[in-house]
Amino acid sequence: MIDVTGNGAARVRGTVEKPHPNRTLYTLPWDQVGFADLEVTITPPGDERGQAHCCRTGLVFWQDRDNYLTFTVYLDDDYHGSSIALFTKRHGFEELYDAVWTMLWTKIDWGKPFRLRIPFDGERFVVFVDDEPVMQRALTDLYPDDPPLRILRVGLAVNWEWGNDTGSSLQSFIARR
Fold first, then answer.
1. Which CATH architecture has domain 2-172?
2. Residue 173's closest CA among 7, 16, 38, 11?
3. Keywords for this entry (predicted)?
4. Which end of the chain has less Cβ packing within 10 Å, N or C?
């Protein structure tokens, strides 16, 4: 569902005619359970609004099948702007309407690469787009009694969010300790 294209890049398998279905998480083992600083350069598909392209790509912090966080872009013709959304699956439950998101207007646009970076300590995170902080929270802001996430895997996420990705490109995935 995410194909290697060469030159250190990958592409979400999806087109306008056949978008990427549902959710794909591509993860790697992580041995520092209390911290990860992830970064990826994403180029949304298409060149401009009106081509029916969608971007729903980003990063994932994984504890197990019942506990993980995805941070993905929402870029779509149906919305005059872009956003980054956090979707949580905690204790086996995912409530789509509990998503936390931030509006970025045209900071993310079709065909223009941007860097998404998220340092996360299992409790608190900061989302950066091209080195600008755009969102910060603690998991306890959402669920006050929730324990910290143990980060056992990290990686790339392609998420369904009222639509599917049509072929975003990914470059320079970096995971820092």
1. Sandwich (2.60)
2. 38
3. Plasmid
4. C
Select from 41, 46, 37, 45 the least CA-distant residue to 58. Answer: 41
Note if the pTM is more than 0.90: yes
DSSP letter assigned to residue 148: P
Residue identified by tokens 């369904």 is 160
CA distance 46 to 67: 33
Query: What values do phi and psi take at 97, rounded to 5?
Result: -80, -5
Question: If we measure between CA atoms, which residue out of 56, 82, 51 comes closest to residue 70?
Answer: 56
Q: How far apart are CA 52 and CA 28, in angstroms?
A: 32
Which residues have CB under 8 Å from 26's CB, separation 6+? 1, 2, 155, 156, 157
Residue 110's nearest CA partner among 39, 159, 46 is 46
Domain spans in the chain, listed from the N-terminal domain onward: 2-172
- The residue with tokens 């087109």 is 15
